[in-house]
Amino acid sequence: MTYSEQMIDQLEAGKLKEAENSFKLALKNDDDEMLFSLAEELYGLGFLQQARTIYLQLLDQYPDEDELRTNLATIAIDEGHNDEALSYLAQVRPGSAAYLESLLVAADLYQTEEEFEVTEEKLKEAYDLAPDEPAVQFALGEFYFLIGRYAEAINYYFQLIKNGYTDFAKVDIAGRLGMAYAQSGQFKQALGYLTQVKPEYQTTDIRFQTGLTQLQLGNTEDAIKTLENLIKEDDQYASAYPELARAYEKENKFQQALRTVQEGLAVDQYNEHLYALAAEITSHLGNQQLMKKYLLKAHDLAPDNMTITLQYSNFLLHQHDDETNIKLLSPLVKEDETDPQLYWNLARSYQRTGKFDLAGKYYQAALPAYSENPTFLKELINYYREAGETDQLMDELEHYLRLVPTDMEMQDLYDQYEDY
């Protein structure tokens, strides 16, 4: 047995001191081919410094072997020494047998630095050199998948499948295709591939995406089964709870939906979106007190989230709690928040509390966004009636009736004021 082989056996047995001694002996006594194999195994086991030592020793003896430089560059990247890696890669010139590999390593380096344009350049150059090389196709697919250019990712994943690769580098290609199609909104194609993923690659992320895709396609019962099974196997997978709750909600199973959200909150108690969803589901159950509790918690966790703020505001309007609604929204107006729904909600509360000047101010602020919205216009017309602003009332009545000429109640109101 060579010293290299002894070292690997000792590492696997946890005998680190003996392995260190065998490593020193291997460097002195084993042949170069054995040392190169040892370096590869050590790299795979995470012993980067030892692998680096071997590659440097071999490079001294074989200065024309560029594969050693690409391997050293890979180790440098893993250790965060990108300048060192670039130095090694710059020494690998076009025409070298290792040039293609150097392009892939360089692409990996620039990707870690989020220099995506340079990453793409390196990968495209590699593809021009070797368009049928699976490692290049896979690298391009993964790169485009990472940056969200899913159509391009799909193209390269398909090339791998045509080359007979159903998986590559421990990645299931059907799973990648399914995820890419789902992210690009092509849910039928996505589900077709997601259901082909081999059992050993059925990660929680894959199963979660399968459930989401089933939900998008309206296969609610299938989605419920998928997400229920996912939670049974991994009850800490927080993202599954809101989607399962929405699936129950679609089936009008509101008690189960609420229970699911509550279970999700036990896993992720600081998720404002879960509290907001709990409030939405509770609205179907008629429990106003519990709904208010969830909305308050959601708003406390994310006071700057306008969607949640308006959800809470809508609840307060429904409860005719106008003073609380004004306290909630008026500070946002002072901060120049410009969401038109905010102005509309504030105008309604000011009108109901008899503060007509302020109500008119915020109705006017909301008007540009809702000038074609019949519901808003009816409220504005009602405001003008209460405020006694007849000219504006007639203008908006005419405008409203152009939009909804069949509304006889509003036509009668128009006729009534026209007579005056």
Description:
The chain has a two-stranded antiparallel ribbon with strand order 1-2. The mean pLDDT is 95. Strand 1 (167-168) and strand 2 form a beta hairpin. With 420 residues, the protein is mostly helical. The longest helix is centred in the last third of the chain and has 15 residues, at 356-370. It has 25 helices and two strands. The protein is elongated, with a radius of gyration of 32 Å.
Give a short synopsis of this structure:
With 420 residues, the chain is mainly α.
Order of strands in the sheet with most strands? 1-2
Unreliable sequence segments: none
Give the SSE string: HHHHHHHHHHEEHHHHHHHHHHHHHHH
The proportion of residues in beta strands is under 5%
Radius of gyration: 32 Å
Average pLDDT number: 95
Shape: elongated
Largest sheet: 2 strands, antiparallel
Share of helix, binned? over 70%
Q: How many strands in all?
A: 2
The count of helical stretches stands at 25
Class by SSE composition: mainly alpha
Rounded to the nearest angstrom, the distance between the terminal CA atoms is 111 Å
